[in-house]
């Protein structure tokens, strides 16, 4: 459910999410709008598919890759001494006044998400729930 919320809020304010991505100083500015849209859509769609148990293995594998990239990007910027928002859950700031900057907290949280997604990626199926006996390899 968190991936749905996170992806949905990023889609609602793509311009802000693009600014957050730019703060990481990793991607060329030309790629930032496309990456912002792709990350937002992936989070939203994979979150929905995980909730309804549709193509769970594929969805969790995509989210594992994204988590690994998020962890690496935050770790890299922490090591470089950069301070900025992580871009994970903007609703924390808007609704609760909590500012979430990159640091050990978000990195540990994303590692926890990675660990929680791992068994789903390894043990779930890519079955189509409404078609009994059908599974994508």
Automatic annotation (TrEMBL):
GO terms for biological process: methylamine metabolic process. The keyword Lyase does not apply. InterPro entries: Methylamine_util_MauE. The keyword Translocase does not apply. It comes from Chlorobium ferrooxidans DSM 13031. Pfam families: MauE. The chain crosses the membrane at residues 30-55, 62-82, 102-122. GO terms for cellular component: membrane. Residues 2-119 form the Methylamine utilisation protein MauE domain. Its main location: membrane. Keywords: Membrane, Transmembrane, Transmembrane helix. It is a multi-pass membrane protein. It is found in: Membrane. This is Methylamine utilisation protein MauE domain-containing protein.
């Amino acid at each position: 459910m968190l991936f749905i919320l996170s992806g949905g809020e990023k889609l609602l304010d793509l311009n802000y999410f693009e600014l957050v991505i730019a703060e990481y100083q990793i991607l060329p500015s030309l790629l930032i709008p496309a990456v912002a849209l792709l990350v937002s859509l992936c989070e939203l769609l994979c979150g929905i598919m995980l909730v309804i148990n549709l193509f769970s293995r594929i969805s969790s594998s995509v989210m594992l890759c994204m988590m690994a990239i998020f962890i690496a990007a935050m770790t890299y910027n922490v090591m470089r001494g950069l301070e900025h928002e992580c871009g994970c859950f903007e609703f924390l700031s808007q609704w609760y006044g909590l500012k979430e900057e990159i640091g050990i907290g978000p990195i540990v949280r994303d590692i926890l998400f990675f660990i929680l997604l791992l068994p789903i990626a390894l043990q779930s199926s890519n079955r189509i729930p409404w078609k009994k006996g059908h599974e994508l390899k």
